[in-house]
Amino acid sequence: MDENEHSSTWQTQARNEAGADDAQMADTIVTTIDPQSQQQQNPTDIEQQQQQHEHDESRSVAQDSSVDLADTLPPSDYYYHRADDDDADSALGDDDRASSTRSLTESVFNYEYENGRRYHAFRAGAYPLPNDELEQSRMDMQHHIYLLMLGGELYRAPLDAAHLRRALDVGCGTGLWAIDFADMHPDTHVTATDLSSIQPSWVPPNLHFEIDDAEGGDWMFSEPFDYIHIRSMAGSIGNWPQLLQRAYDNLEPGGWIELAEFETWASTDDNSLPLDSAYHEYQVRLGEAAAVFGKEMNVAPQIRGLVCDAGFENVKEDIWKCPLSPWPQDPRLKELATYMNLQMMESIEPYSLALFSRVLKWDNNRIQSLLAYVRQDLRNLNYHMYSKMCVSPTAFIQKSYDESMLILFAGTAYMPRNHMPPSEIGDK
Fold this sequence. Notes:
This protein is of the alpha/beta class and 428 residues long. It has two domains: 79-396, Rossmann fold; 404-428, no CATH class. It has eleven helices and 13 strands. The protein has helices at residues 9-17, 22-29, 43-55, 88-91, 133-149, 176-184, 240-249, 278-293, 303-309, 331-358, 364-379, and strands at 81-82, 112-114, 117-119, 166-170, 189-194, 202-203, 207-211, 225-231, 251-262, 318-323, 386-395, 407-409, 412-414. Strands 7-5-4-8-9-11-10 form a seven-stranded mixed β-sheet, with helices on both faces. A hairpin with a 2-residue loop joins strand 12 and strand 13 (412-414). Helix 8 (278-293) packs across helix 10 (331-358) and helix 10 (331-358) runs antiparallel to helix 11 (364-379). It is globular. GO terms for molecular function: methyltransferase activity. InterPro entries: SAM-dependent_MTases_sf (IPR029063).
């Protein structure tokens, strides 16, 4: 889109304000990320605060000499182990795991800093979002939103705990989902992978984390999994068919894969979001930058088709609407929307900062100016924006040349699609 094709309301206002001196411009254009406050800050101040927040080592409990480490451990009646124990991997039976996906080296922690945010070092540049404390807090809040959307459940797939030996969480982030899942299924060996080592040190004994790139090469796990969980990977994956093929190849016959994504682009049922709004401009620019970067940002609408194309069967997709601001009257939706609004206020910068600066070549002041107006749109309750959350629990049906072979899932008989009599094969 040509920047000069139209003159939007927010752009006109920004140009008018640009005639003021720098201090006045900073006071009128750039706002904070707090949705409850109208206090405004200079972009430079925001960046300095983020840097100070990131480098303030005294905030770490592990490094605070005034805190007894024993006070930070889980209750004594619930055993956790250190994720970096030397015997953790061997105890869990993955001795033959490829060292490229198991070993931690000093280089993993040589983080890169850009525009006041911290980014991963392993496979540097592969993932456009930061991994600093601000981003970790946002991911934790997003985990809470998923729980609210799913009624407190961690997953939708009809898992059989008695036959759930191994589970994999791809792109685990801070590890909250994996920890909760491991707690829920103590007899299941849970593996969780991510590009960044930002997970807690004390975890359930049946869980271990690995620094790995899901797109970095063939998966080298020692055994296949009964359940694979992939969530919030929009903007992270360049080749979704390849990722799902690897998941397919590493899933036990009769196993399940579950994907969960929010649509990146906001929707309205009443066209209340103007096309010349800052939020719409943000979405257009983010889509352009992500396309050049080579990683699809709005992948949620494609999930069902992608998993079907990968060869999975019994594909089920659940879709829910999640308001982006507390405009609904329903108390439950308003509570959900309040959390989502806070998460959105925090997410628009990490999703766009690297892409706008590296791909669009915008300077930080220009980025922060647009984001300030985007936050104003997120506070505007007249904009009835929502995002659709798509969850696809999908079964992998065992391939067999025996046409009499039926596999039961949730009380329903399925025959491998490729081996159905031609007269019984129809569109699904």
